Amino acid sequence: MKFRGKIMDIACLNHFTRVVTTISKLTKMCVLRLTPDNLFFVLSGKVANGGVSMWCELSQANFFEEYQMEGVSSEDNEICLEVTPENLSRALKTVQNAKAVKVKLTKKHCPCLTIAAELPTLSSVSRVVTHDVPVDVIPRRLWHEFKEPSMPDFDVSIYLPPLKTMKNIVDRMKNLSNFLVIEANLNGEMNLKIETDLVSVTTHFRDLGNPPWGDDASQDGGPSQIRDPESMVEARVDIRRLQQFLMGQQVNPSKAMCNIVHQSVLHLILLHEDMSLQYFIPAVA
User: Residue 279 and residue 5: Cα distance in Å, rounded?
Assistant: First the structure.
């Protein structure tokens, strides 16, 4: 197994750092899956993390000037590493003004992702800063746990309001309740609701729009059953999970949307031209 990559462009480095920092806000540990064309940050929905799962996909060509890897074998040309994204984020943040950053899979006292940055200098002597981020190599027999999740059989898909606005509302609601009901319909309307014995608060959004899912989407084109556009579909979720997602968001997506499986799953999607992030929050009764 071999992996080495080199980032030369400072905008690419900053963007890659923002993506990793976003991941670090969502989970303490995740799997970094390396393939010849892509990098994936994966969290599989285990009970230990509240059933939350995540799938973040990056095209390596949009970030790396040089990218070389050899997987476990020619048939299984992949590498899966368990990594603490916070450590990776911290290392990348210290080298933001570097002329070049090399990332390499190394074997020190344990397997590491070694980040070596060539920093600008006033003299002719080069300055190189190195960070070793410990990782665990995931054995081949466990790879099946880290495949792309299938698109849920959603009842409603809707574009999200500005994430900053949504975050401010959810932050306030969190002071009043541990759970939030998010409901939406096919008429571009979405409500955020909390209800307790003492208070009931609802925030309404209108004219958000509904994504035009094509034939390749879930269930042959999105919501298959003929649904009344005004009829609301809902999911009641742990408000901390939603707040975590909104707080960590640093990638400034070109599109943000959510799919709701009625009383089952909230599926959040952020799209950028060179990355996509999917986050699944299970509904609670």
Answer: 27
Query: Beta 233-238 vs 255-261: how paired, if at all?
Result: unpaired
pTM above 0.70, yes or no: yes
β-sheet bridge partners, residue 7 = 101
Answer for the pair 185, 230: CB distance below 8 angstroms, yes or no. Answer: yes
The secondary structure of 211-267, three-state, reads CCCCCCCHHHHCCCCCCCCCCCEEEEEEHHHHHHHHHHCCCCCCEEEEEEECCCEEE
182-200 tens-digit pLDDT: 999 999 999 999 999 999 9
Q: Which CATH class is domain 2-146?
A: alpha beta
Q: What is the four-CA torsion angle of 31, 113, 246, 238, rounded to 10 degrees? A: 40
List the domain boundaries for the chain.
2-146, 156-282
Q: Which class is domain 156-282?
A: alpha beta
